[in-house]
Amino acid sequence: MSRTRLEVFSDAVFAVAITLLALNLAVAGPGHGPLLHQVADHWSSFVVYLISFATIGLIWVNHHALIDNLVVIDRTLALLNLVLLLFVVLIPVDTATVAKYLPLGGQDAQVAVILYAAAFLGMGLSFAGIFEWTLRPGRLPQPVPERTRWKARLRFGAATILYLAAVAVAFVSPLVALVIIAGVPVYYIFERAPALGSPAGARQQ
Amino acid sequence: MSRTRLEVFSDAVFAVAITLLALNLAVAGPGHGPLLHQVADHWSSFVVYLISFATIGLIWVNHHALIDNLVVIDRTLALLNLVLLLFVVLIPVDTATVAKYLPLGGQDAQVAVILYAAAFLGMGLSFAGIFEWTLRPGRLPQPVPERTRWKARLRFGAATILYLAAVAVAFVSPLVALVIIAGVPVYYIFERAPALGSPAGARQQ
Amino acid sequence: MSRTRLEVFSDAVFAVAITLLALNLAVAGPGHGPLLHQVADHWSSFVVYLISFATIGLIWVNHHALIDNLVVIDRTLALLNLVLLLFVVLIPVDTATVAKYLPLGGQDAQVAVILYAAAFLGMGLSFAGIFEWTLRPGRLPQPVPERTRWKARLRFGAATILYLAAVAVAFVSPLVALVIIAGVPVYYIFERAPALGSPAGARQQ
Amino acid sequence: MSRTRLEVFSDAVFAVAITLLALNLAVAGPGHGPLLHQVADHWSSFVVYLISFATIGLIWVNHHALIDNLVVIDRTLALLNLVLLLFVVLIPVDTATVAKYLPLGGQDAQVAVILYAAAFLGMGLSFAGIFEWTLRPGRLPQPVPERTRWKARLRFGAATILYLAAVAVAFVSPLVALVIIAGVPVYYIFERAPALGSPAGARQQ
Q1: Which of A16, B115, C33, D118 gives the lowest tally of CB atoms within 10 Å of its CB?
Q2: Chain C residues closer than 8 Å to D36 by CB
Q3: What distances in angstroms separate CA A22 from CA A17, A49, B56, B202, D118, one per listed residue?
């Protein structure tokens, strides 16, 4: 398994998913009231679009940081990566569901946000699985020392914990759950993925 | 024909097809009953989504294993590869058809699963064609010895035989046919594609 | 302008267009009669799908053959390539139009096939434009000799002439026009793109 | 962050967005009057399709010119690039909205064109942000001299100023605003992106 091909395939999936997100913003068209009102009624679509876009964008950045340093790319990593992508491609659909049901409130809004948070949770868990794989001997140019592993796990796993919280909170308040979900990409803008060994000389791509 | 370009094009097709799969999971939206019921009624969509995702994912892994070792990439391979992709891009549509008709049962469910299995069968046959191409002299860094060819063919061709069985079984029981189809990616998770000669020094990408 | 980036962008456009083709094959779903009848009524969709898939596939192969040998990739080539892609992305939509209107016959079928042939004609003319660009000095590792230029032009341009014929014929018989359009990729399966100078040592990608 | 991965991801997003544009050209299908009339009524779709295609195509060319020369690709650039793509993926949806509402005229046509121009304005501002990033020391093989910076900014920023004008003009005349928007890619066909230091020896991709 070559790094290039794993990256090209993953990047293409990220790219298609992130572009499909915007299709949810389409208005119903003529005959459904003034366009200005239609756009204004679409506020939930715009908010969820921004959250999903930022999240997929940051996953892509972190995915890159994780894969880029690896010395070896094998079939197991490719399969773990497919599990990650399984959840990534769910995001456009779940984004559309939240956009439609959030303004209605009630149980439907809760269900929509729980599904949305669950897709992110699955994504976070898959990412944690890939991270564990990278910690095994020989995967990184320099092994991550035992004493910093848990710190690294915590940094990478912070998103997973937040998504778990979002699933739970969505039963009570879908809006608060969305705020938590929106916080994850903001967190990763400022908190870089932990440096996983020096890549110096490790790749020649 | 460069390896890179064959791979980038194929990976992009795989990526778009795998991402389009999830669009079938979209619910009808407000006015069609509680969201929880809509999602529950969608069980067939989720099951077929998982089967199709796993199958396309494993094809991609095997495609990589097959192409990666080749010493030469020519126009004939590009054409065979196009035939493979012809069936790959049918999968999202056939997945949607199964998702819609499986819960209804009867002849429609049979037809839907037969179409679905037939697309996979076409894919399997195309893959077998590419495999045969790789066995010709000068294609692999080390030729596959005569005595292991049939073993290799059987490993690669197992999927094709299973898909043929699925087409036949679907006339009687669409559900059993789906179980067979779902078994193929599970089989390939554990059974690696046969090692096709050592790639050592064979490529400089 | 790097060759890699021109190729990745073009390949992604080809890949998305070729995958979108299959979406036209989706049946209307439950409540529109037996699935078997729906599929049978879709014969025109399947035929046009095959024609469009084969055509985009062969364009991709020829595009590769043309770009791969070039010594220089510049902004003018990138703009000519964009004109080519402008017509490539029209193909899925025009394919859908032909699939819908061909079975109805009459003037609508004529208009649909004229639009379809016109998109291919535009594509052929853009390709001819790129080909002319490659004939200028310094573009190929070895200049194409004057005496073989017209032969090369004819080989590359055969498609354009056939598409022009298809546009004209479609006014009389849309079906005969489709047969002509279907003949182009069949022609290019057997007739390779002319060898444009030896690429030996010309690229280090 | 490797240049290759930033480019592959960006190119895939550009490619999907540019291909989705054409989907807006689909006619309603049989039962909606003669196909010739449907196509003729679609004039606004064709015009906006051409404008959007040319604009995304030229952004892609300029994006390449900007990224290709950089000595360093970092996380900040990746985030700025994501902001640019956030606006790029809005273009297919906003194109569809203009196509639907422009022929109706009135306030709806104004709102549609304002949204369209605003997406391009956001894109222009993001591009300007990336451009500023490239001016910091160590980003380019040779720093852009102080005295030519404003000239370079003006060249790159011309689009942003025109899009700002288009937003303002759209309140009065959506058609004139569209002419301004259409002028931007025409401008960039003739005005190259400023040469940002010599790339000689600066990259080894």
Answers
A1: C33
A2: 107-108, 111
A3: 9, 7, 25, 43, 15
CB contact under 8 A, B26 and A78: no
> pLDDT at residue C196 above 70?
no
Rama region for A29: left / alpha / beta (φ>0; ψ in -120 to 50; rest): left
Q: Which residues of B touch A1 (CB under 8 A)?
A: 61, 64-65, 68
Q: Work out how many domains chain D is built from and give that number.
A: 1
Q: Is B199 on the interface with A (CB under 8 A)?
A: no
What local confidence, expressed as pLDDT, does residue A21 receive? 93
pTM of the model: 0.91
CA C49 to chain centre: 13
Looking at chain D, which subunits does it touch, using at least 3 CB pairs closer than 8 Å as the criterion?
A, B, C
Low-confidence ranges of chain D (pLDDT < 50): 194-205
Q: How many residues does chain A have?
A: 205
Question: Could you give the CA distance from residue B38 to residue A107 in angstroms, rounded to a whole number?
Answer: 13
Cβ of A101 under 8 Å from any chain D Cβ?
no
Interface confidence: ipTM more than 0.90: no
Asked if A16 lies within 8 A of B11 by C-beta distance, the reply is no
* Cβ atoms D50, C85 nearer than 8 A: no
* C12/D15 Cβ within 8 A: yes
If one counts every other C-beta atom within 10 angstroms of the C-beta of residue B147, the result is 7
Q: From CA B5, how far away is CA C63, in angstroms rounded?
A: 11
Give the contacts of B82 (CB within 8 A, at least 6 positions apart). Answer: C53, C54, C57, C60, C61
Contacts of B50 in chain A (CB under 8 A): 86
Domain around D158: 3-201
Q: Which residues contact B131 (CB under 8 A, 6 or more apart)?
A: B66, B152, B153, B156, B157
B59 contact A CB<8A: no
CB of C179 within 8 Å of a chain A CB? The answer is: no
